[in-house]
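Task: sequence design from structure.
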């Protein structure tokens, strides 16, 4: 049985090792995305907007400023300034780029094209391999295969647990030295890796995760409603935000998603105090006139929904402060090292003997 499990572990590891290396390395870097932005663009770490900017009229002004600067038909979403980033951030459709707006004045602070910012390229690599929806699904599958590798590796390494020395760096570059380091690092990092991989898969496949946790594959909120359109004036936007805040008066507005089509409602994301997600999962769908079509109360959602909602902040290190972010980054680094050890060991196993075979002695005769 162990021989078969070992063969499966090796074959799956050989198939996905380079992908896992990429995901681990980019994930470790993305944990410190906000810190990098604060360092390279100090204006992003400025003071939070005042209370007036968070009123329905202030939020309407900010939405209209984004439309004026970037075009309502080009905007996918606006993430409002918060504790991490002190500027409103515009995301354009089709990964076409975006920009920062001053939440107080509406002035454009910065603009960029789709692949201009390193952090955006890293995120697209990590989240979708820069391949769109197909890439996202591939990343989710690789994450699940990675979790399977961790579990099978634990079973295979369990008999050697007493000989564990905690050597996470190879003592030699031989195949045996790489295998030992791979095994010991895998044992040390197993639990954090399982948590990171499973929460990452839940981010990619939320409906499946809800079903596996005993919930419903579909959320109760509707995605479409007849004859609605995007906000076309301050009055319309103010009505939208007034309706959203009336439904959830203690929540903080965090993001707006523009309609994809004329018959799609505006989505306002809010964060309630109990939520872990930095942008919240509480959602209000409303028409341009401010008529509420549907709502999603994340704080009162069933337990499976709340667990899935917590997957992203746990996966991305958005809870627990610097200590937890460092742990997530170390888990990503461990994944990259484990993958590199296995890839090099496999290469040595497959090609190491080429050109090194001893010549046969000449026959006497």
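Answer:
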């Amino acid at each position: 049985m162990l021989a078969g499990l070992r063969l499966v572990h090796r074959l799956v590891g050989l198939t996905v090792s380079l992908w896992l290396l990429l995901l681990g390395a980019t994930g470790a870097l993305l944990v410190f995305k906000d810190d990098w932005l604060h360092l390279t663009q100090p204006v992003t770490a400025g003071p939070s907007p005042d209370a007036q900017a968070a009123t329905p009229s202030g939020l309407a002004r900010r939405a209209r400023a984004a439309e004026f600067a970037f075009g309502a038909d080009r905007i996918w979403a606006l993430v409002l300034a918060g504790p991490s980033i002190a500027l409103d951030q515009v995301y354009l459709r089709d990964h076409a780029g975006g920009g920062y707006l001053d939440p107080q004045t509406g002035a454009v602070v910065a603009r960029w094209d789709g692949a201009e910012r390193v952090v955006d390229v890293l995120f697209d690599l990590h989240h979708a391999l820069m391949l769109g929806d197909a890439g996202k699904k591939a990343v989710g599958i690789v994450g699940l295969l990675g979790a399977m590798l961790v579990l099978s590796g634990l079973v295979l390494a369990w008999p050697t647990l007493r000989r564990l020395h905690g050597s996470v760096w190879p003592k030699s570059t031989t195949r045996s030295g790489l295998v030992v380091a791979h095994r010991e690092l895998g044992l040390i990092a197993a639990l954090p890796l399982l948590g990171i991989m499973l929460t990452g898969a839940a981010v990619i496949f939320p409906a499946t995760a809800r079903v596996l946790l005993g919930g419903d594959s579909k959320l109760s909120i509707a995605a479409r409603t007849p004859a609605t359109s995007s906000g076309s004036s301050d009055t319309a936007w103010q009505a939208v935000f007034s309706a959203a805040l009336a439904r959830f008066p203690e929540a903080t507005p965090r993001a707006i998603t523009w309609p994809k089509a004329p018959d799609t409602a505006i989505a306002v994301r809010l964060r309630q105090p109990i939520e872990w997600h930095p942008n919240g999962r509480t959602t209000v769908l409303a028409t341009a006139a401010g008529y509420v079509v549907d709502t999603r109360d994340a704080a009162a959602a069933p337990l499976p929904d709340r667990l899935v909602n917590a997957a992203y902040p746990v996966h991305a290190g958005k809870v627990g402060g610097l200590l937890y972010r460092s742990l997530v980054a170390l888990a990503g680094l461990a994944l990259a090292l484990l993958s590199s050890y296995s890839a090099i060991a496999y290469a040595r196993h497959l090609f190491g003997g080429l050109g090194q075979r001893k010549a046969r002695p000449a026959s006497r005769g």
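The chain has two domains: 2-46+119-207+318-350, 50-103+217-301.
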